[in-house]
Amino acid sequence: MSRDTRMARTLHVLIHLDRHVKRATSDEIAKMLGTNPVVVRRMMAGLRDRGIVASEKGHGGGWELTRALDAVTLLDVYRAIGEPALFNIGPNAERPDCLVEQAVDARMAEALGEAEAMLRARFESIAVSDLARDFEDRFARLAGGEGGAGPCSD
Q1: Per-residue pLDDT tens for 75-129?
Q2: What's the whole-model pTM score?
Q3: What is the CA 79 to chain-centroid distance, rounded?
Q4: SS3 per-residue string spanning the chain
Q5: Which of 16-25, 69-78, 90-99, 133-142 has the lowest mean pLDDT?
Q6: pLDDT given for residue 62 in this prediction
Q7: Is residue 145 left, alpha or beta, with left meaning phi > 0 and alpha meaning psi from -120 to 50?
Q8: Minimal CA–CA distance to 62: which of 34, 87, 31, 86?
Q9: In the chain, where the domains are located
Q10: Of 62, 67, 87, whose CA–CA distance to 77 is shortest?
């Protein structure tokens, strides 16, 4: 099963909109992410619906932030992308007849529920601006000659 990268990609876009460009079209964002503008519009629509970004059509239009990154948490972004499943593991069947499978599924559901609650709480405690500062720290270390990978080319 492939990884769902929508959250990471969305966070990437938000930091770019804050740190590098104040407004970007769906085409520009699609080029940056190596995807289709239709995918970008779907992704950004969830952010718009939550009041994180706004869009303007026409010449000079595009997507821009409507809230500061310190007012947006990872949980906000997770909700904006539709709250996808956090884990790729889980029960085998919806209504298993086997008592062993029922016992396994019950304990797995309990453990996964606890882990999901902890992860959501952690997402709520991290502002997108925290990630942006981490980027800036990494970039400063690179510029200071500490080596490592360069900033992305977008």
Answers
A1: 999 999 999 999 888 877 677 888 999 999 999 999 999 999 999 999 999 999 9
A2: 0.86
A3: 9
A4: CCCCCHHHHHHHHHHHHHHCCCCECHHHHHHHHCCCHHHHHHHHHHHHHCCCEEEECCCCCEEEECCCHHHCEHHHHHHHCCCCCCCCCCCCCCCCCCHHHHHHHHHHHHHHHHHHHHHHHHHHHCEHHHHHHHHHHHHHHHHCCCCCCCCCCC
A5: 90-99
A6: 96
A7: left
A8: 31
A9: 6-143
A10: 67
CB atoms within 10 A of CB 3: 7
Q: How many CA atoms lie within 13 A of 92 on its CB side?
A: 9
Q: Which fold has domain 6-143?
A: Arc Repressor Mutant, subunit A (1.10.10)
